[in-house]
């Protein structure tokens, strides 16, 4: 069965990814409202009315990821899946909330979800969503590359990975000092070089294709992000998702796998 992902927004103006497969639709992050969600899905040829949404999985409570959760959950009457680091009393009071443990696989319909901690200035996770045959990883708002994140992405076919800023552009750009430290620090966002390090670690794993997202408008350009990451990991297929670009990704296995079979 095919697994598809619809990129509905990436970056500080709102993040959202709809993952669809085996008759199930999961919204990972909802940094946009129900009307935008509907319009963007319709523009991508995947209208909302037919199938609805089976669950929302926000990664953390920052507005560009969480701002639309309440309205969408209310409009679509769908459950919200929260890890213990997300405190959202209003959402809890009004909607079906399913709590899950970080690091433990759970299912939404026939799709499997796994979330792992990543460093950020709010409790934050990277997410893997898998059908029987395919898997996509999603990791934005990551302060620094970690072994746990590499392990999660190494089990995916395709990943949407943050390449937030160019270190030089951040250092000489318009941000005030405290914001530069926040973005560039270990609880902020991945620089192009750090994303390149992560991509290089993943060469030779199951992951064959990386889409760069959550690019800063002030402190990065799509060209710089792409160049830095692609040159760090020459055998990885790297593409870039500019701000506001809507697209549909079809998840395919990029390489053949041989299962380890015991002798005799
Ligand atoms: Zn963000
Ligand atoms: Zn954040």
Could you explain how this protein is built, in words?
- The chain is of the alpha/beta class.
- 28% of the residues lie in helices and 26% in strands.
- It is built from ten helices and 14 strands.
- Strand 10, helix 6 and strand 11 form a beta-alpha-beta unit.
- The chain is globular.
- The structure holds zinc ion (2 copies).
- The site of one zinc ion (ZN) has 7 residues, from helix 3.
What bound compounds does this protein have? zinc ion
Q: How much helical structure, as a percent, in the residues?
A: 25-40%
Characterize the biggest β-sheet: 7 strands, mixed
Q: Using DSSP, what is the number of strands? A: 14
Catalogue the unreliable spans: 256-264
- Strand residues, percent: 25-35%
Strand order of the largest sheet: 7-8-9-10-11-12-13
- Any idea what the shape is? globular
């Amino acid at each position: 069965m095919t697994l598809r992902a619809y990129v509905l927004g990436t970056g500080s103006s709102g993040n959202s990814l709809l993952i669809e497969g085996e008759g199930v639709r999961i919204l990972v992050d909802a940094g946009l409202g129900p009307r935008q969600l509907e319009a963007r899905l319709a523009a991508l040829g995947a209208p909302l009315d037919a199938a609805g949404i089976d669950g929302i999985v926000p990664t953390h409570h920052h507005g560009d990821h969480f701002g639309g959760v309440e309205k969408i959950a209310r409009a679509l009457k769908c459950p919200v899946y929260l890890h213990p680091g997300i405190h959202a009393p209003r959402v809890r009071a009004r909607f079906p909330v399913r709590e899950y443990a970080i690091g433990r696989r759970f299912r939404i319909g026939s799709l499997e979800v796994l979330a792992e901690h990543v460093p950020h200035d709010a409790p934050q996770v990277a997410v893997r969503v898998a059908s029987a045959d395919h898997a996509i990883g999603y990791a934005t708002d990551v302060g620094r590359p970690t072994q746990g994140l590499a392990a999660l992405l190494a089990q995916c076919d395709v990943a949407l990975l943050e390449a937030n800023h160019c270190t030089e552009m951040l250092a000489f750009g318009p941000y005030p000092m405290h914001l530069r430290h926040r973005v560039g620090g270990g609880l902020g966002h991945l620089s192009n070089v750090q994303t390149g390090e992560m991509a290089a670690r993943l060469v030779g794993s199951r992951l064959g294709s990386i889409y760069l997202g959550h690019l800063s408008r002030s402190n990065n350009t799509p060209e710089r992000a792409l160049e830095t990451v692609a040159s760090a990991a020459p055998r990885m297929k790297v593409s870039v998702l500019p701000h506001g670009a809507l697209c549909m990704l079809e998840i395919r296995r990029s390489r053949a796998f041989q299962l380890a079979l015991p002798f005799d």
